[in-house]
Amino acid sequence: MGMAAVVKAFEDIRAALAVLNAEVDGAGSEPFSADDPLAGLADGCLDILAGAREVEARIAGLKAKAAVAYAESAQAVAGPGVPVQAQEMAVAAEIGCVLALGPRAAGSFLATSYALVSTLPRTLAALGAGALSWQHAVVMADEAAGLDAAGAAALEAHFLDRDVPDPAQGCPVGEMPAHRFRAKARTWRERHHAESIEVRHAKGVADRRVEFRPDQDGMAWLSAYLPADQAVAAWNRLTAIARRVQGPDEARTLSQLRADNFADAILGSGSRTLDGADQQLSPIRAQVLVTVPVFSLLGLAREPAMLDGFGPIPPSMARDLVANGAGSFYRVLVDPRDGAPLEIGRASYRVTGAMRAWLRMRDAKCPFPGCSNNSLDNDADHILAWANGGTTGISNLGQPCPKHHKLRHTTGWTPTPASKDEPPGWTSPTGRHYPSAHQDWEPTHWPQGALPGKRSLLEEALLEHLVS
Q1: Domain count of the chain?
Q2: Do 413 and 272 fall into the same domain?
Q3: pLDDT by residue (tens digit) across 20-65?
Q4: Domain carrying residue 182
Q5: Is 220 helix (H, G, I), strand (E, B) or coil?
Q6: pTM value?
Q7: What is the 3-state secondary structure (H, E, C) of 281-346?
Q8: 251 and 382 share one domain
Q9: Is residue 199 part of a domain?
Q10: I want to staple 368 with a disulfide (CB 3.0 to 4.6 A). Which of 83, 293, 323, 404 is the partner?
Q11: Are residues 190 and 228 in the same domain?
């Protein structure tokens, strides 16, 4: 069949697209619903969007395979006399011209395609089946980079094989936005990388820097590559200051206030004007929530701690935060079977500070699908209203950001039940259910010489530490 089959296949695709376009335009052969054409069209368009997402993923998988097949064929045709680097540049240039990509984008596309075809078979298969998007595949390739073959296979299995021990929980990879998947994949990679996070963090610290990048309209970006605790603490500090300045007489947005306070801190004299008076800025403290595995806190294990708003950090950084009085450090008792925080509750309407912190540990962010807001001012919200018999316990609480809290109470979007270690999902006004991304809790890493179920001198010391 050859080229004739290719031409015929794309003709069929174009014809199918023409049919779908006619349906969206309301010019199909018959309406989606004879009883309620407008509501039928709305529901039909959602089905078309879902189908288009699947087809786009399948096309992306096809493009990756075609790019690698072309590169390998072109290399064979060129023969051994062409330098490897020159041949790679020629292949990337050809693919870039065909796909209208610049040299850097073409090289990145080709590198991801090679990774999928050669080392990430589960990801390529899921892409070809329409189960995840090209953006998800790029995340998998990025996070697998630097892992050995066994590590890359384990990363794929954790997120794409539901039958492996300790699989990813909650929302399937392809049903969450790629940026949320990146956060989860990075967390897994940090926990399971063959090289200690302490060693890798030391290399990162040596590369800390501030970068300047010009932009359009007389603007520019000034960014810093910093240790996570410093970066999160600075961001939270800028947010807290901006919140205090907000009011009916303040026209600036929260983002604008953060930017102005950032510039004042760097360019000013170390003070700010608040309520008409100059106030001296206090040193930035790490106002963060950090959850530390107790064996890592004692220095007996190298298991990463979790920094709220960031992810895994070296245990030495967590111990330093605790030793220097991080403002919101909590010692957390966890279920040793799966690492999830244990349930707490309260018999009154008021949600305590400890319970709010617990919600942050359970959900890590606003639980609305795709939302990444993990700021300190997410709202504690009863899923089943208190007036309707709902209790003030972790299993009946969510922590939506203000935008999605308002959405819940002004539209038909409703949260679904939660549990002690699973955030609520959401049901849309059309009746479709969207799960929320879960934390991937893992069992505690017991140090050598300490086995679960047996009392040892080490455990005696651990119990004494928890009680003190």
Answers
A1: 4
A2: no
A3: 999 999 888 788 888 888 888 999 999 999 999 999 999 999 999 9
A4: 52-194
A5: strand
A6: 0.71
A7: CCCCCCCCCEECCHHHHCCCCCCCEEECCCEEECHHHHHHHHHCCCCCCCCCCECCCCCCECCCEE
A8: no
A9: no
A10: 404
A11: no
